[in-house]
Specification:
Elements: H1 5-17, E1 27-31, H2 37-49, E2 52-56, H3 65-78, E3 82-85, E4 96-99, H4 111-118, H5 125-129, E5 137-140, H6 151-158, H7 168-171, H8 178-197
Parallel strand pairs: 1-2, 1-4, 2-3, 4-5
Helix pairs in contact: 1-2, 1-8, 2-3
């Protein structure tokens, strides 16, 4: 419920595979609910590795002050910077844009509220263009609502709610690395298992 460390390892492996930059020159923007478990794990690992992190989302779903303060303290040693904001200008220069579904398991009763809050943060081609970086990659921890092929998405659309956190043009586009990211989960978890057995 609090964080997702194995996901963060797969995320960093995917970033390393898809950039020529040093990690301490990399900028990651997480869009949406910036206080969910994936966002927190990204903040922690960015702090450790010196990656600049932006949490771009509504104030109502902002990261907890104590989490932000902890990451900023670690960042003083590694050079990582942290910004939690609802200002689109923060997308400028992003090397990766990351998002997650808007209502996790057990939060289905909050879909209406989340759609209202998070629709402005849906990942679209227009949002990706705001990075002004044609090499900017798209990341997602999966599963994703990116089209209306799932029964849940169709059911919610019938109620008037578009629960897609990313459009299919981005999800299926050339800058999307979501399936590499999913594969890297297997490799990084094997590495964790080996490390703990030795």
């Amino acid at each position: 419920d609090v964080d997702h460390p194995t996901q963060a390892l797969a995320d960093i492996m995917t970033i390393e595979e898809n950039t020529n930059k040093q990690l301490n020159q990399f900028k990651l923007v997480f869009c949406g609910d910036t206080r969910n478990n994936v966002a927190y794990s990204l903040m922690y690992i960015c702090a450790k590795l010196g990656i600049d992190y932006v949490g771009y989302g509504p104030k109502e779903l902002a990261a907890a002050p104590e989490v932000l303060e902890h990451c900023q303290e670690v960042g003083l040693e590694t050079g990582a910077t942290f910004l939690i904001t609802d200002n689109q200008a923060a997308l400028e220069g992003a090397d990766a844009v990351y998002t997650d579904i808007w209502a996790s398991m057990g939060e289905e009763d909050r879909i209406r509220e989340r759609v209202k809050l998070l629709t402005p943060y849906r990942i679209t081609p227009e949002l990706m263009e705001m990075t002004n970086n044609p090499e900017c990659i798209f990341l997602h921890c999966l599963p994703s609502f990116h089209d209306f092929e799932t029964s849940i998405a169709r059911e919610q659309l019938a109620k008037g709610y578009d629960i897609r956190e990313v459009t299919d043009e981005v999800f299926q586009g050339p800058n999307s690395k979501v399936f590499d990211q999913a594969e890297n989960h297997m490799h990084t978890i094997k590495a964790v298992m080996i490390s703990t057995l030795l």
